[in-house]
Amino acid sequence: DAGITQSPRHKVTETGTPVTLRCHQTENHRYMYWYRQDPGHGLRLIHYSYGVKDTDKGEVSDGYSVSRSKTEDFLLTLESATSSQTSVYFCAISVVGGNEQYFGPGTRLTVT
Amino acid sequence: SQQGEEDPQALSIQEGENATMNCSYKTSINNLQWYRQNSGRGLVHLILIRSNEREKHSGRLRVTLDTSKKSSSLLITASRAADTASYFCATDGSSNTGKLIFGQGTTLQVKP
């Protein structure tokens, strides 16, 4: 998976609790992305980063925040998890924005 | 809304046959990419075709791009059981933001 790890790989949490997912890369790529994948919706962009402390919203950013204080780490936070945020979350990295992306193994999050 | 729409949504063929998947998109692009996803795994980049290219090959993969029709096709020749996966197209939307927009994917089953 191209030097990308995600943690945790699986998580079950209760509605209303905060959750933070971590994406770590060893490739020193500038661009990092968070997606969610749901049946019938394909892959949808939540937030992305084009450098340390530089982030922007994607298609489905409501209810999510991100932080990137180091090149290698991109954190996705659900401030107060809801059942609609049950999904599989993928992190991806890219050398050049808009070019090929390399994906992590995914995190399966269940909000009960 | 999804930029790319794949067709068909599902495809089942016998080993040795060719598989063709189509992708349509809505806005102008700099490039179009195809990815493969095996069950429970992250996406893997297959091929990128730029807007000024009409056809590109990689091993058993052949991708065509028709910018006048805003469509692309992915042909997998002499398919194998190991090609069983979901296939996604993604476009950059020529926005130069570094974002990709993914379609909902075609699920390919290759029967041995």
Structural commentary:
The complex is a heterodimer of chains A (about 110) and B (about 110). Chain A has about 110 residues and is mainly beta. Helix content of chain A is about 0%, strand content about 60%. In chain A, strands 2, 4, 5, 6, 9, 10 and 11 form a 7-stranded mixed β-sheet that branches. Chain A has a 4-stranded antiparallel β-sheet with strand order 1-3-8-7, with no helix packed on it. In chain A, strand 5 (about 40-50) and strand 6 form a beta hairpin. Chain A is globular. Chain A starts with a strand and ends with a strand. Chain B is mainly β and about 110 residues long. In chain B, strands 2, 4, 5, 9, 10 and 11 form a 6-stranded mixed β-sheet that branches. In chain B, a hairpin with a 4-residue loop joins strand 7 (about 60-65) and strand 8. Chain B is built from no helices and 11 strands. The termini of chain B are far apart. Chain B is globular. Classes of the chains: A mainly beta (about 110), B mainly beta (about 110). At the A-B interface, strand 4, strand 5, strand 9 and strand 10 of A face strand 5 and strand 10 of B.
CA distance, first residue to last residue of chain B? 36 Å
Q: State the order of secondary-structure elements of chain B, H for helix, E for strand.
A: EEEEEEEEEEE
Q: Care to count the β-strands of chain B?
A: 11
Strand content of chain A: over 45%
Oligomer: heterodimer
Parts with pLDDT < 50 across at least 5 consecutive residues of chain A: none
Percent in strands of chain B: over 45%
Q: How much helix, percentage-wise, in residues of chain B?
A: under 10%
Radius of gyration of chain B: 13 Å
Helix content of chain A: under 10%
Can you tell me the overall shape of chain B?
Answer: globular
Main interface by residue count? A-B, 30 and 24 residues
Mean pLDDT score of chain B = 92
Main β-sheet of chain A, in a few words? 7 strands, mixed
Number of strands of chain A: 11
Shape of chain A: globular
Unreliable segments of chain B (pLDDT under 50, ≥5 consecutive)? none
